[in-house]
Amino acid sequence: MSAPSSRSDQNFTFHLPRSSLKIAGIAFGVGILLFLVVWLNARRNNEFYRADPAQPQADTATLTPLPAPLPAGSGASEMPDARPEAVEQAPELVETAPAPPPQPIAEAAPAEPAPAPAPAAVAPSDQPVPLPGQSPAPDYPAAALRRGESGTVVVRVDVDANGVPLDVRLVQRSGSRDLDRAAQEAVRNWRFQPAQSNGQPMQGSLEIPFDFKPAQ
């Protein structure tokens, strides 16, 4: 009788359900899609950060060399002298007329003095006329001024052929004896242009009013 063998000759087979296979297939497909998405993003990022190729530099401007300096000589230039040659001209003789002799300076005639102004003439009249400067106004009596007296006095004066008063009398009184007396005394000292008839002086009469008013 043979001994029992220690190794088992039986094979075990594992069977997965179909639902598990579907899940595995979906997971595999999702993994592939994720891989593609990651790979495309990485390539795009590499192209974004890639430096642009250097632009070719513009051609350097060609510099024209300056002309060589002329050699220094003894100071003479090869250019022709542009200055015109001096033309000798014969001097011309110009006859000048002799200057006329100086004329004697006439002395200025002395200025004649201005004529003195003529005194104001008084027109002849058939009545005596008081002479300017010889007929002062009467003084206001101090007593009448203190009392505040005022009024109008009219005097009549008779003047002879020489212009001297002959008589002075009151024609209109002021109501103040002092004012009436002051008017009469003033006219007695006046001088007049006598009245005239046919160009001859004669005696005449004249009435003169005086208005006495104290200053305000």
Architecture overview:
Pfam families: TonB_C (PF03544). With 216 residues, this protein is α+β, with helices and mostly antiparallel strands. The protein has a domain of 84 residues: Fusion Protein Consisting Of Minor Coat Protein, Glycine Rich Linker, Tola, And A His Tag, Chain: A, Domain 2, CATH 3.30.1150.10. Helices cover 22% and strands 17% of the residues. It has a three-stranded antiparallel sheet, with helices on one face. Strand 5 and strand 6 form a beta hairpin. The N terminus is likely disordered.
Summarize the structure.
This protein is of the alpha+beta class.
Describe this protein with a few key phrases.
alpha+beta, disordered N terminus, Fusion Protein Consisting Of Minor Coat Protein, Glycine Rich Linker, Tola, And A His Tag, Chain: A, Domain 2, 17% strand, 7 strands, 3 helices, two-stranded antiparallel ribbon, rod-shaped, 216 residues, 3-stranded antiparallel sheet
Largest sheet: 3 strands, antiparallel
**If helices are DSSP runs of H or I spanning 4 or more residues, what is the number of helices?**
3
**Class of secondary structure makeup:** alpha+beta
Q: Round the Cα radius of gyration to an integer and report it.
A: 76 Å
- CATH architect. name of the domain at 129-212: 2-Layer Sandwich
What is the β-strand count? 7
Q: State the strand order across the main sheet.
A: 3-2-7
The proportion of residues forming helix, as a percent range, comes to 10-25%
List the uncertain runs: 1-8, 72-80, 108-120
CATH topology category name of the domain at 129-212: Fusion Protein Consisting Of Minor Coat Protein, Glycine Rich Linker, Tola, And A His Tag, Chain: A, Domain 2
* Intertermini distance: 189 Å
Order of helices and strands: HEHEEHEEEE
What shape does the CA trace take?
rod-shaped
- What value does the average pLDDT take? 73
What's the oligomerization state?
single chain
